[in-house]
Fold this protein.
Amino acid sequence: MGVPKKIGVYFCQKEAALPMPVDWDAVAEYARGLPGVAHVEVRSPRPAPDPEVLAHEIKKRDLKVVVVAGDSPGHFKPAFTRAVALAGGEPTEVRLASFRQHGAGADDGTERAKAVVACAVHGVPFGLAASPRPTAVNPATLVIGGGVAGIQAALEIADAGQKVYLVEKTGTIGGHMAMFDKTFPTLDCAACILTPKMVAVGQHEKIDLMTYAEVQDVAGEPGAYRVKVLKKARFVDPDACVACHACMEVCPVAVPSEFDGGITTRKAIYMPFPQAVPNAYLVDAAACTYILSGGKKCGACLRKCAKELIHFDDRDEVVEIEVGSIVVATGYDVFDARRIERYGYGVHPNVLTALEFERLTNASGPTGGAIVMKTLRRNKRTKQDEWVFDAEGPRPGSVAIVHCVGSRDKKYNPYCSRVCCMYSLKFAHLVKEKLPDAVCYEFYIDMRAFGKGYEEFFERIRLEEVFVVRGRSAKVVEKDGRMTIKGEDILKDRLVEFPVDMVLLSVGLEPACASDRLAGILGIDRDEDGWFRETDYNIDPTGTERGGIHVAGVCQGPKDIPDAVAQASAVAARVLKSVVSGRGQGSRASLTVEEIESRARALAGA
Amino acid sequence: MEDRRIGVYVCNCGTNIAKVVDCDAVSDFAKKLPGVAVARSYKYMCSNPGQEMIIQDIRELSLDRVVVAACSPRMHEPTFRKALQTAGINPYFLEMANIREQCSWVHDDARAATDKALALAHAAVRRVVHHEPLEKRFVDMCPATLVLGGGIAGLTAALELSDAGQPVFLVEKDDHLGGNLARVDLTAPYLDSARDMLADRIRRVLESPKIEVLLRSTLQSLSGFVGNFRAEIRVGADGARTVDVGSVLVATGFREFDARRIEHYGYGRLPNVVTSFELERMLREGRILTRGGRVPKYFAMIHCVGSRNPEYHGYCSRVCCMTALKYGHEIKSALPGAYVYDLYIDMHAFGKGCEDFYRRTAEMKTMFLMYAKGTTPEIVPSGPDDDCEMLIKVHEVLSGEEIEVPADLVVLMVGMEAREDAADVAHLVSISQDKDGWFIESHPKLDPVATTTEGVFIAGTCQAPKGIPGSVAQAEAAAARILGKISRGKIEVDAVFAEVDETRCSGCRMCNELCPYAAIEYDAATKRSRVISAVCKACGCCVAACPSGAIQGRHFTDRQIFSQIEGVLEWASSQG
Amino acid sequence: MGFEPRIVGFLCNWCSYTGADLAGTARIHYAPNVRVIRVMCSARVDPTFVVKALAEGADGVLICGCHPGDCHYSEGNYKAMRRFPLLGRLLRDYGIEEDRVRLEWVSASEGKRFAEIVDDMTERVRRLGPSRVKTLLEADRVER
Amino acid sequence: MAIRANPRLVEELEHYGAEDVAKCYHCGNCSAVCPFSREPFLFPRKSMRYLQMGLEEKLLGNLEPWLCYYCGECSEECPREAEPGETMMSMRRWLTSRYDFTGISKLFYRSWKAELAAILLVALLTGAGFLLFGFRWGGGHLGVYAGEGAFLTTGAVHVFDWILGCVLAAFLGINCARMWWFSIGKDRTLRIPPLAYLRQAFLLPVHFFTQKRYAECGKKRPWAIHLALMLSYTTMLVLIMFFLHAMHSERTVWAAHGFGYLATIGLLGTSIYALRGRIRKEETHYKHSHETDWIFLILLVFVAGTGILQNVLYRVFHLDVAANVVYVVHMMGVVPMLGLEVPFSKWAHLAYRPLAMYFSELQAEAIRERERAVAAAGAPLPA
Amino acid sequence: MPEKKLQIALYWGAACGGCDVAVLDTNEFVIGVGFLVDIRLWPIAADGKYRDVEAMADGELDCTLFHGAIRNSENEHLAKLLRRKSKVLVALGSCAHLGGIPGLANQVTKQEILERVYLDNPSIEAGNRVVPLPSTRVDAGELEIPRFYRRVYRLDDVVPVDYYVPGCPPAPEQVKAALQALVNGTLPPARSVIGASNRTVCDDCRRRKEEKKVTRFHRPWEILQDPDRCLMEQGILCAGSATRSGCGVRCPDSGMPCRGCYGPAPNVIDQGAKFVSAVSSIVDSKDPREIERILGDIPDILGYAYRFGLPASLLQRSIR
């Protein structure tokens, strides 16, 4: 290298920046020692850098290269670029050293920040200098979560001939998608496209399917993880069960059905849904009279099962598996609509959440797909009045759909859940399709119809005479004995009050409740909203800082089915790449500053 | 045919079937059918003893065809096929009669149900006579991949594949790699450096011994089928290369909407109306000036230029909203005293971190003006007393007012559209385009990167508008598909597919366009069509359509289905 | 005993056959008159199958495929959709009542719908009475 | 004609406390939850919109900020924490400054230091004036609080009160007239028959004395507090303006003093409650405090405190000297409070708000009439 | 030169006589044939009486070329008679092979035919309502005419046939080839189709074939056709793809679509159903209404699909 360039390093921060475990002064001190660095400055958040003042300084100090360092230095880059241009310099010589982007959020933030600054000073992309050391890799893969993303990733890997363990928390794979009726915007039936994949998983010789199981502990290192999986007792042998329903028919216990979003009940011995994979029964130990009474009561199913497959002496067991890669595809939970009281969920019987409506309108749902209102009926067993769906129940004459329930709201989830606009439009379509005379209102803020064919779908809904109201509805009240929804129709400049028979709340997506614990077990990060953090938002949306562990689907952030599937496949590429080449990706954390710096130096020289 | 030795097994499924269907009657009936050597009724055919019984019978009674009347074939067909295989006969010599899901579980009249079961069993026996031994076959898989397009999607896929040790030919039309992303400085919503991420990838691609980068190159022709493509590539002005590849990834990206098409925005006519890409360049170069050399004070971003407008493109271009918000941040950074307006329809801030970015842009006092879809803001000259270059008039729908705002620089957020050569590419690699010119994926939900042409994949914005993370994920997904195929070395061809009897084909080409997977090839020299079995998915559409009866679908031959039809009806007519 | 129609059903493997299976798993009862022949896709249903079934004495033929847009093979069901009107006209010219041959879309989750279709079709065919095709063909037969 | 948007207005409104208005993304939640918002006045969203876009003319004629009582529901339900309630509050401050023809109000709102300086100045002048009067011209003695030879004679104070009152009323009257002009007078499209002014005039006292609209809020306590404060203040004003003699008499006139004590306790209690609320920030409408809010509340507590203190000193402890001193100090609070706060700052709303109720009803009637005319003419109603 | 001349008969059932013309169209060849064979019966060309045939010994005839369908009892009688007397029975032409044009009468009932011909026909004098009966009593005694059947049969339906020479009429060269094979004793195994190819007309058609997507069907005269391009692609309903070849592509070559006289391809059971399947498959639309509209351009689908072979179809006849 010739004469060292005169490099200025500016540390800039925004006031609102997240507290990062970075000791800025230490990093600044480190930067001073880097070759070519002529000026280091730690700027306070205010005032914001003024390009003209900066230009003056840069000219005065004769800086040839400017490194802007900080949590999100991109916010300051245009100012520095303009300053360098004003100073007559080369605007391409403004480089970024982004702590946030390059993962200086972990415990060793300061060390990572130093490395990031070093790379910027050398003019080498951080990813290039800090690519983790390859590791040996066990070809087996663990996929956590059996929703569509997990299924896709598992199939993709297994179809390539590699061993996959698929661990699913519930009694069947399928996840949320199995609950859906139609999928937007093509309106194809979710079961039609998902069940063949589920069956393929169930029958795949390379996939070891562990349903009703949870990951308990992960030890080892990238490429060679040892995972403890807790297999909860199903009490029915899934391989031998012929799904004859005999046991279920005699079971006296009824608990809300998870699969039906709680709008119907299931028995204590149950199959989550008819197409479940494995297609076998299991016993909900928390509800089973026999188990709860220690074998003193009931046991009806035990006597009924002709194949004698019910074994109440089954116990949970922990199995240990060894894998090289882990794919996290744990999906999401939906926002609890009870949290927003003004929508009256839980108070008004016909205020439904999206999942409930999905099941209601589903041909395999409790009403055979008929959209009906809940009616009051006396439960013979409990002798109490209950609001239930009855296929013969009254059809709603008017339905309101409220977008952004729990989303885009600083009090609940500040982010956009990304799928609700489209599924709400789908709901409107289904309502109009099944009840052409029903009046349907959509209350929205921004209609986020951004995907392939989405905008056209929105146009179609308008043609179907759905009243699309720009303005999130404010509340559901009882007025003159009728449920009434209130909101502002912004485009028409009116306050609106529609009497409605049914309100559908387009609840947003939230990180699955166990993701906190899982993040701890796996040693991966979550972002401020609780989603798993990827290595790089843009170019590595599936990687994590911990080598060999990948995230796929909604657990990384809300996304629709095509995006989740694409991501799941992308993860498979990562896994297959390491298995095929025999070179796994180690953790970046294992690299020291010195190592990264010397690599950057070498790369810069090359 | 008459000397077939058929075994018929009727499952009671505990009482699931036997409760309604008289299983013994079914097996007794079957025993008398021509060709049936043995018929049994058993409690659980799928259980180990049940399967053992079949295996033993096959061996001892030299059965050559098996009928199992039990549950849905969707449930246990693989189980029984395995049993046949274990017993040493071809697994396709099995036929199942579904007397549970579609009989005992749905009927309560025992007689009617038994009749139906008899008919189904009869049909199965009649059909199984015509079953042929089928074998899974394998064709070679060439490990090399042809990647068309050197943008972020192409680079990503090339790297994934080469990192796994597989050869890649990366064909780029331009004289440099990077594609449209090379024109971008910072990315939304985190304002990370696009330059760094591209520099990283390009460097790795160029240094990879497994990737051959062909710049200024275009694909001339592609022949063959999955695993065995041959591509002719024109390199530079007059070079040519022929490469053999197993897979093709199309990642040809998008082109920006030509803002000149919307005349009243005056792009090309009004000096200070620029496109988003032009503003991007200004920001990247640190020289943000009006045409007259003034530092602009008022910036107006007009969203949805060419997008969400049926006159141009009905679809949303997906990234422009976030890009406009990004410009808001960048302008306020470079010119702290400037004012920024966003004239938008709906704010599409849907990605991770995007809503937050939108909120922060708002907090920076960017003025958001909403106009109605189907209308457009108007750019008018400013008056003599105005301190701005232009005025923008817009019917602002959130206030319901006609308003005008001063503007020095109007930025048109041009949308994405399919490249001008997309139709040629589609034709070359035989994939389809939708009405907007985007390439069509095999299945929008479950197969967003494959196409109906086996072995040809699509990734990135050539499939539909999308941002960087989406393009990267798709590119990697496509790489996964390709790696999956490569890692097995051979491509397994399902034993069930359609085939053309060349002695009967007359080359009428009725079938050619019917196949959604382009599995049917027409050979102009011999004037015959041919089904590429490696690509065929056995739907049977062409079989039904072939007017000369030259195409037969394995395992679903006319013969087999006719026998089945006769089977269900003949029995019924003799009984009822 | 009254007339019990014999109906041949051609069901596509991915949606309709699965839907019919679902009717089973959900124990939705329906008329036992339809005998199902599984094909991979409704596009495989050659009109010849329909005339064959009628000639063999079927009183009705039911063809079921995935809903338009849902086809496992992208657009096979559209091909079924295209063939059906012309086949219908052909059969009409033969003098076969319209209700005897039916094309329906049944998705994998529409077990109930499948049951309803079967019941409805059985009822309609029952009302039409037995198909005369086979009787007439037999009556016409000439001693060679 | 298109209206020119002004990106600077939102920056200006920051001085008046509207710091979060830019965050609003117009979901319409606030207008729909607002118990006061009803057609044809949909707020706060629309006012927020005008403000974001800097439509100054629209805002100036906009009475909606006065229809808002800041119950805080909108701010509580705002998904973007754009604080619509506080924005309305800020708009009231801004409107106050715009109604005020002198420009003093604008100065005060934009600079609390200027306001404080003005208050101190007026206080010092008042103090000096009263001392001069007491020692020089009034002929009274510092040792006499009431009755013959009192340090500050009732008559003189009374005259002073009335002069001050008239000056204030003049200022306020001109500002109110401006308010009318901006909101009704200027708008040629609104036709208001003179009779309507009379017919609706009852609204003025009704709203002044009851703030009954405030009571429509879901939470009743803020209204009760506000009502107590207003009634106490009004009672005190009436006592001072009309019954100062009784108040000042040597013996305790319970008919007057009873009310006096009650009003003072009311004033003290409510303003201390408000201060405490603003410090604790638990209630939405107390979360954000402009500097002028603090000044006003402190002044109020000060005035009420000194008011009662002088009474207590005189009537309970018979400390005439101390009572007189406190009296002067009290006046040093009263005069700036009345002289500056009433026409130029927060206290002006006691006039503007009932007026706004009155004007808005007139406006609404005119708008309804216009719509009826349009409908009758067969022209389509605006969608 | 064989010692004994071959004994052959040519007979027509329900037919137009075109097949006879096709035999004559072999031109000088037919004269040559005369030297090799004795024509024992050929109603169109030579005098002959049924009783002469009845007088023959069984199997006396080496071959009978039977053309025409079986419409009445006379046809059936002669078919059975000639079968008995012949070693080889050849179904010549579409009528004998598949039912042919007369077979289209299977769309209607016997009653309808009689009414149309004898009662409703505009050329019938008013008041003349005479319908022929199988037997009529006249002064001379009982007058019998052949019984008119309910439907038309193929030859194969009433007697076993050894060979089929398709075509309406069969191409003269094919007739020639068949006769030659007969004379030379080089006939293929019995019950096969001779004088035709195993592929369809498209195989021999010189028209250029590309990808087929049709959005409109036309009658041949409705459009100006591209003489080199596949007719089907131009929307002209051509049955060539579903029809055995061997005719020499006479129709498409002269700008008319193939009507299917050679019958189905060897693997095809039902020509019409297959044709319907193929034609509707290439309709380029996914919209049911649009599909209906496009297919609506096709008139009389039963007549189109089975112009020459309705009695040979799976359903054979209208069930009305």
In short: Residues 7-143 of chain C form a domain with the Rossmann fold fold (CATH 3.40.50). Chains C and D do not touch (no CB pair under 8 Å). Chain C has five helices and four strands. The longest helix of chain C spans residues 76-94.
